[in-house]
Amino acid sequence: MSEHVYKSVELTGSSKVSSDDAIRAAIERASKTIRDIRWFHVIETRGHVENGKVAYWQVTLKIGFTLEG
Q1: Which residues contact 63 (CB under 8 A, 6 or more apart)?
Q2: Which of 4, 36, 42, 46 is 20 to 30 A from 64, comparing alpha carbons?
């Protein structure tokens, strides 16, 4: 079995729909410029409130990707 080395970066995604959608948005956008994304870890979830309702979600996550050899 081959050993892997990973690099991680921190991203923040946002969505008016849900925290899950914010995660998907961040990963899908990052995958346009980062190859071999393998995992993610949610660091923080927060949101913005307007007129007593959640206006949008923000999720900060780390993603890990395999370094090319």
Answers
A1: 8, 9, 11, 26, 27, 30, 34, 37, 39, 40
A2: 46
